[in-house]
């Protein structure tokens, strides 16, 4: 099995009449762009395999930035995502494609991604907890270090009922000001544990990850948001997984 890696397709698009250009997220090499020659032809046995959310074993070659796919095998059937879970999965794929530098190893994040997709496939309720856990894991692997459990001003442990205001590059500082950047100690403890026992902590997690991810995403809108808005009727109370509550 030398040269084989576990991977998922993040995104694909036609490259020629018979080929595909793929963005892969692999266990050992991180995000990799490859050309799958002949994958669009009628006789190709790769058509069903090279789809998002299908666990793959892949090999590629080449010295340039864009590699050539040598082999690909589906390890199992695609993880069953549909409805809101499907659009949530597309959001996660777009997030990885936009944020990770090409060719940088993120082996631990690869398994965070796998667990997120598995959670989305297995949920009968809201996808929000799985999305928040993955976003926090992603920020951690990017080196976005923040101490949720201590006041950046005094160094004391956060208190459940106290309010703390987030200051970029400093952390959470006790404050009487309550605004979009303010969080209770109870909410910060939930962020630290990545467990969200109530609606308030889940909303706080979404609010924080939106702020923290913004510098990595820049001003370009996420396509998955627009897709979700087309999927959900305008009058529906449901919101996109990347929209603030």
TrEMBL record:
The keyword DNA damage belongs to this UniProt entry's keyword annotation: yes
Coiled coil region boundaries: none
Keywords: DNA damage, DNA recombination, DNA repair
InterPro entries: ARFGAP/RecO, DNA_rep/recomb_RecO_N, NA-bd_OB-fold, RecO, RecO_C
Residues in DNA replication/recombination mediator RecO N-terminal domain copies: 4-76
SUPFAM superfamilies: ArfGap/RecO-like zinc finger, Nucleic acid-binding proteins
GO CC annotation terms, alphabetical: bacterial nucleoid
GO BP annotation list: DNA recombination; double-strand break repair
Pfam families: RecO_C (PF02565), RecO_N (PF11967)
Family statement: Belongs to the RecO family.
Role description: Involved in DNA repair and RecF pathway recombination.
HAMAP family per record: RecO
UniProt name for this protein: DNA repair protein RecO
Source organism: Dryocola boscaweniae
Gene name for this UniProt entry: recO
């Amino acid at each position: 099995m030398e040269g084989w890696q576990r991977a998922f397709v993040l995104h694909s698009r036609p490259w020629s009449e018979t080929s595909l250009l793929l963005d892969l997220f692999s266990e050992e090499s991180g995000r990799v762009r490859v050309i799958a020659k002949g994958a669009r032809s009628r006789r190709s046995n790769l058509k069903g395999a090279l789809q998002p959310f299908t666990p793959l074993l892949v090999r590629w070659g080449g010295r340039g930035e864009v590699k050539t796919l040598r082999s690909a095998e589906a390890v199992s059937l695609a993880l069953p995502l549909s409805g809101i879970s499907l659009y949530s999965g597309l959001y996660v794929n777009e997030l990885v494609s936009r944020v990770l530098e090409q060719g940088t190893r993120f082996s631990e994040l690869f398994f965070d991604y796998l667990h997120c997709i598995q959670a989305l496939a297995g949920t009968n309720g809201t996808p929000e907890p799985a999305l928040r856990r993955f976003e926090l894991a992603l920020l951690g692997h990017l080196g976005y270090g923040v101490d949720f459990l201590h006041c950046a001003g005094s160094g004391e442990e956060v208190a459940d009922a106290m309010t703390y205001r987030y200051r970029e590059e400093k952390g959470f500082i006790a404050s009487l000001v309550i605004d979009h950047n303010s969080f209770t100690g109870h909410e910060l403890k939930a962020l630290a544990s990545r467990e969200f026992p109530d609606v308030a902590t889940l909303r706080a997690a979404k609010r924080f990850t939106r702020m923290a991810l913004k510098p990595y995403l820049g001003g370009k809108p996420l396509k998955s948001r627009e897709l979700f808005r087309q999927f959900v009727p305008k009058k529906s109370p449901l919101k996109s997984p990347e929209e603030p509550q």
